[in-house]
Design goal:
alpha+beta, Jelly Rolls, 7-stranded antiparallel sheet, 9 helices, 44% helix, globular
């Protein structure tokens, strides 16, 4: 079970034409609109959610509205999740509150879309967690009123990255999760993702996939079968390995020249 999303409700709805009476949640509501429109109100403010917009309702806020051919994805993260990410970023415990409720920000839209797709497609836990933290960190950093602090030089210790690299390579067949990787570096999840991507140029998930593929190639060249190599380096099965291999090389691993 993904601890970050335990007991979290998700919705993926196509072409809704419903009236939503006044109500509130004890969680956040965070979602994106793919098509159509939601004409809504939130604490005496009216707004429209349309294509490529993202929307947020704070816990306890009264809201409702009318949808027209509205296709969207929603999830209802607990207060604790956003509060923890806020603390990871700003080093103080607060509940982030959003004054705006609809954002015409395509960067935010596609970050949330990426998270939803990873969740719905049941991707690796690390990929789901990373895209979740990436999207919510962006939302908090750009749309809460907190004065942003600079952390450019806080975690420049190269030993942290060296330790992460060695930990991953020594345990390549492990089913990694973000909490485990961050804890190994004694960092918050937010800062681990930021520092790792800064140093390596790719996310931890992409790095692990790349390293697994590199190791599998060497095994296959030494006459290990595709299925055995896939399992030995940590892929769920041969099809999982083949799919990721093709993303990098454009062809299937069956074409690898063996010694």
């Amino acid at each position: 079970m993904n601890k970050l999303l335990k007991d979290t409700t998700f919705e993926c709805v196509k072409l809704s034409n419903n009236n939503f009476s006044k109500h509130f949640h004890d969680t956040y509501t965070i979602g994106i609109t793919y098509e159509g429109v939601l004409k809504s109100f939130n604490t005496n403010q009216k707004y429209d959610s349309f294509r490529y917009t993202s929307r947020v309702n704070n816990p306890g806020e009264l809201h409702g509205g009318v949808s027209s051919a509205w296709s969207h994805s929603n999830f209802y993260p607990k207060v604790e999740l956003l509060s923890n990410i806020y603390e990871d970023i700003f080093f103080e415990k607060k509940i982030p509150i959003f004054q705006k409720h609809v954002f015409s920000d395509k960067i935010l839209f596609f970050k949330l879309h990426n998270f939803f797709m990873n969740y719905y497609n049941n991707e690796d836990i690390l990929l789901i967690q990373s895209s979740l933290v990436d999207a919510l960190s962006y939302l908090i950093l750009n749309y809460t009123s907190h004065t942003k602090k600079s952390f450019e030089n806080i975690f420049d210790d190269k030993r942290v990255i060296k330790n992460s690299y060695e930990f991953i390579c020594d345990n390549l067949d492990t089913d990694f999760n973000l909490e485990q990787l961050a804890r190994n570096s004694n960092m918050s999840k937010y800062h681990f993702l930021r520092v790792f991507k800064k140093e390596f140029g790719i996310t931890p998930h992409n790095f692990i996939i790349n390293q697994r593929i590199n190791k599998a190639i060497n095994l296959i060249k030494n006459d290990v079968s595709l299925s055995q190599a896939s399992l030995q380096v940590g892929f769920n099965d041969q099809s999982h390995f083949t799919r990721n291999f093709k993303k990098l090389y454009g062809y299937t691993p069956s074409r690898i020249n063996k010694k």
